[in-house]
Amino acid sequence: ATLTLGDSFKITNIAVIESKEGKNFVSMPRFKTNERTDKNEAVYKDIANPITKEFRQELYDTILELYEDMEDKGKTENSKAAENAEEPEFTVKVTPFEREGSNILGLVRVYFEDSFVVGNINILKGKEKEFVAMPSHKIGKIEQGKAVYQDVCFPVTKVFREKLYQSIHDEYQQEKEKLVKSGRDLMQAQGGHMRNQPERETPFR
Q1: pTM for this model (two decimals)
Q2: Which of 132, 97, 135 has the alpha carbon at shortest distance from 118?
């Protein structure tokens, strides 16, 4: 299944899965982490998912209803559009990230209407400037010896993409400035503390 928020942002790779008991359920797109369970099994985490009980219920019920209607009528595809869909309001949370050997500069989460969150978005260091990389998955094709990836979640329109990416960039710069300021304040506090200490005799004096 594919979910489009206000004709502006698309989430793909949503799956309808049949459980061992024969009951269908919705599985949101996930990615495999480096973590392992106590049974040495791979740990997966959601890329995007509803964050309120009400929206989760509405979304999952709609997907399952569309799927069952498609099956009953022998369709190959089914869809439902919301009335008067508007561009979704969103907020951005960015955590600056620096690690030696990594080109990741920041980790991003986008909250839509306080009901849905998309994570696993990265700010990457490019040759000339940083850029936003949406969550993606390998599609199995190899071009010129390199794996080809496809975005799982992404802006649909140019206008919304520019608006979203600019918000991410602005938030990243603000968070970086906060980190620099807090580091500077800490150094000044430690320096001031050291200057206020009385001189002590050392064995080398």
Answers
A1: 0.82
A2: 135
Burial class (CB in 10 A: 0-12, 13-18, 19+), 66: middle
142 is written with which tokens?
């190899």
List per-residue pLDDT tens for the chain, 205 residues long. 999 999 999 999 999 999 999 999 999 999 888 888 888 888 888 999 999 999 999 999 999 999 999 989 998 999 999 877 889 999 999 999 888 888 999 999 999 999 999 999 999 998 889 999 999 988 877 777 788 889 999 999 999 999 999 999 999 999 999 988 877 777 777 765 544 545 444 333 2
